[in-house]
Amino acid sequence: MKVEALFHRAESPFAHPLDARRLHVRLRTKRGDVKRCEAHYADRYDPPEMSEIVPMVRTGSDAWFDYWEGVIPAPHRRVRYAFYLEDENGDSLWYGESGFSSDRREAGVFQYPYIHEEHLHSAPDWFLDSVVYQIFPERFMNGDPTNDPEHTEEWSVSARPRPDSFYGGDLQGVIRQLPYLKELGINALYLTPIFASPSNHKYDTTDYTRIDPHFGDRETLKELVSRAHQSGIRVILDAVFNHCGYGFFAFQDVIKKGRASRYWDWFHIKSGPVMTTPKPNYETFAQNVWTMPKLRTDHHEVREYLLDVAAEWTRETGIDGWRLDVANEVDHAFWRAFRERIRLINPSAVIIGEVWHDAGPWLKGDQFDSVMNYPFREAVLDFAARGRISGRELDARLTRIRMTVPEPAHRALLNLLGSHDTERVRTACGGDDRRLRLAVLLLMTYTGVPMIYYGDEVGMEGGNDPDCRRPMIWDADEQDRDLLAYYRLLIAIRRGSAAMRRGETRTWWVDPDGGGYAFFRRWQEETVGVVLHNGDTSRTFTLDARPFDHAEELVDAMTGEVFAVRNGTVTVALGPFQGRVLRLK
Ligand code: ARE
Ligand code: CA
Question: Between 145 and 270, whose confidence is greater?
Answer without folding.
Answer: 145
